[in-house]
Amino acid sequence: MPRISIGDCQLYYERCGAGFPVLFISGLSGYASYWREQVPSFAKTFEVVLHDHRGIGQSDHSRISYTVERMATDVIQLMDALGIDKAHVVGHSTGGAVAQVLALEHPERVASIVIAASWTKADAYFRRLFALRKEILSHLGPAAYLQAATLLLYPSHWIARNNERLRQLEAQALATFSPPEIVMSRIDAILAFDRTEDLPRLRTPTLIVAAQDDIVTPAYFSEELARLIRGAEIKLFPQGGHFFSQVLPREFNHAVLPFLTAHTPA
User: Fold this and answer.
1) 108, 184, 190, 252: which has the fewest Cβ within 10 Å?
2) E strand spans, the chain
3) What percent of the chain has pLDDT over 90?
4) b/e per residue, 197-223, with b = 16+ CB within 10 A?
């Protein structure tokens, strides 16, 4: 499997399609495979680049103090290693926070950003939710953590119809689960993230997408992002949960592809 050095660690990556690059950045789970429902459609028009985050999957399991800014630096170093000068960035959840940092700190490297199911900064609800997830991981272990995550990430009706598929995905995730201290450090990273005061100076073309029934990053976070980022477009789906890009892949793809096409440099 392809891995590439970004200096102090090796990242697993995938690259397919041809055209202007699009970097897909997954959320807290950190797997490139999160985007399996997007790759075939986007690779018809763009070069699609995916990676397992540092600490996750087939990338090095670095035992560091994780921050969203560190994750963003890893993306820039991955772009450098792959010879990518500029790209669109599509980030889900934690990946959406990474996209915020990239557009703020490296605007010359980013043609546009899509922020999917993300947030501005942790509030009381967000802190309660992720404190509970840490407790489940700490006291009940990875299997219970993953089973609880399924209930949070997908709509109930979708779980009911896809139970066996989800059991298989949980088993795969358990087989490659990172050391719990890495997962908990990544949770601490998202709890500490806050670039709210900087967002009004962001000038990169931005599309914000979310589902109104998301209970991990409720839609009010996306509405706040749209208010703070000048000129941002926003698209809210009535349902789909936190993983709406998997639950409603066609709708997600149809919302995002025209935006990327419109902002692709000539």
Assistant:
1) 108
2) 3-5, 10-17, 21-25, 47-51, 87-92, 110-116, 206-211, 233-237
3) 99
4) eebeebebbbbbbbbebbebbbbebbe
